[in-house]
Specification:
Layout: H1 4-9, H2 16-41, H3 45-67
């Protein structure tokens, strides 16, 4: 939860402050999505949050590659 949101935010930010803000948003979305998936699919919360964060990272890489 320290590296994945920051890596996902890297392509969308122009300044370090923007990157920190976007990374915190991605982290919050990861937690919410992971906890919802944990409830719905009866899986452990921690790994579900990490899977959600990894999905956000993968989606951001696809969007970042197209924007270049």
């Amino acid at each position: 939860m320290l590296i994945i949101p920051a890596a996902a935010a890297r392509g969308f930010a122009r300044t370090p402050e923007q990157m920190a803000f976007i990374a915190s948003l991605f982290g919050a979305v990861s937690v919410i999505a992971g906890l919802n998936a944990s409830l719905r699919f009866d899986t452990p919360a921690g790994p579900s949050i990490i899977v959600a964060a990894a999905a956000i990272y993968a989606i951001s890489l696809m969007g970042w590659r197209k924007a270049r």
